[in-house]
histidine kinase (Azospirillum oryzae), 656 residues
Amino acid sequence: MPAQIPDLPTTRPLPGDGPGPEPAAGDDLAVLALEQMDQGVMLVDADLTVRVINGRMYEMFEVPRGYIPGADYARIVRYLAQRGEYGPGDPEAIAARHLDRALRADPPLYEHRRPNGRVLEVRTRPTSGGGFVRTYSDVTERRRAEDDLATQRHLLRLTLENMGQGIVLLDRDLHYIAWNSNALDILGVTEEVIRANPALPDLVRHQIASGMVGLPSGAPDFGDDLDAKTVYLMDRIGRPEREFVYARPQGDGRFIEVRVVPLPDGGQVRTFTDITDRLIADEALRQSREILTGVIDAIPALIDVKDRDGTVRLTNRYYRETYGPAAAPPPGPSTDRAIALDRLVVDSGQGVPFHEDRAPDGDGAMRDWLTTKMPLTDDDGEVTHIVTVALDITARKRAEAELRDAQASLIQAEKLSSLAQLVAGVAHEVNTPIGVTLTAISHLAEEVGRIRTLFEENRIRRSDFQEFLDVAWESTRMILSNVERATGLIQSFKQVASDQASGERRAFDLAAYVDEVLLSLRPRLRRTRVSVELDIPTGLIVDGYPGSFAQVLSNLIINALVHAFDEGEPGRILLSAREQPAGWIEMHYADDGKGIPADIRSRIFDPFFTTKRGMGASGLGLSICANIMTGTMRGSIALEDGEGRGTRFVLRFPVG
């Protein structure tokens, strides 16, 4: 509570202020009226003596009745200044300034903001006696409402000015009463013109004359009659009964969408949206869709797009040509599988990689397809559609089957060719011991005939019989040796030939069997200067297919004789094998021939690939090796990288 100042009696005390002369009846009514007012009232005479203060004044300045010094207005002002009512500063200077303004009634109306934030509207009126009457009205709520309204109007103006649209407000007579700058730009008028509140027909006429707005297609030809053109447009877009939207081209090349919203009082709100970019984007999208549709229709594959429920939403021309106008292929096991895969794509959000499938086409003919499925997702990653692409591989599968049959026939022919070479080689090998045996038997027969003649003529001598015994012993030994040799060759031939012909599985000693294979190849090797060396320990027992393995070794060695060494050129082939790791045989083939050029190393196992096709090579030797090693032998064959001269292969296959 501020420091108190001694109270001074008022010239005209108010009811409840204390003792004093009794007022007249008329004065009582006036005092009662002042007390009922919402305004604070103060009457000051020419000598600055306060004559009247009503109760509302005490309430406004938050002091008890009679507390404000009442006799001297100057003291009241100084008191209020000392309380900080007028803000910081020298109280005396502040009081002097307020007294001067009060005496001059300048300004006659102003607002005083109290320290507590309340706003008082102060009105000063001079009296005829040189004094003045001052009224104080609390306008805090009104000012707050006005400030809020001004803020809202400012925000509304900012909103309108920052809208991407133009917007105007028309009154019931279609005069422009509000607008934003975008509207002025689209309407093609200046701020000065629109501030004159022109009517809608006037502005339409101006736009037609300036070429900013034209008549729609199908409109009559009015020539240069602007009034007729204006009336024509106003009849159609001037006063729609309900919300109305139309688009129009601007003279500057833009396209404007106009939305007209009628108001209950007969006025209108019109918005103008520049849709040029949207139309350009729509046109680009339309063209892109046409291009995309054309590309999809040109793809020789089935393409369909389904929604999450499995309903087909889009198909390409190849799909429609295959299944006709039906939305989906006929039901069947393949369709059930497709439905399951569609559900998998929806549930997992992942595509299904290419897989082979078999299903009937629209005519019921079975076809082979290479199919993949891909999800289409929204911004949240949820699957919305499933895209299915199926390539018709029926012809390819048929060709593959024919190729497999051809390869099987060629492999069989190659086996028979190898067998024929084996027969020819063994026949050549067996011919020598049989020839020696025949010669020995013939010589022995001649000796038997000679000794018999001597015996019958009784001319035999001890020396003749001894000579006969020597010849008989030597011939018998020679016959036995060559017959055993022929028997061994025939046995090896029978074993290798039987293995290659039957393809049966059996256990065999790897080192011994390689010897037998090389024995069958000896006739071919004798015509060259190439030697074959072995580094294979005995006791490596393999439970497999010896005939197939023999063909692999034969093809590798014959391939080397054809490609690695020129005719008459010396060379060396080394075959080595070890069991590593346990349960697996790792066999190495190495020669010191020409080697394989780098540009064809990746193709040597391809069927029918050869660099000497005109010299009798079929291109199947290494291809057959690869098929046997990966299929029959359940292993592998690979070309090893190596520097310098020669070629190296590594063969891996299980022991059993």
Q: What stands out?
A: The radius of gyration is 60 Å. Residues 299-390 form a domain with the Beta-Lactamase fold (CATH 3.30.450.20). The longest helix spans residues 394-456.
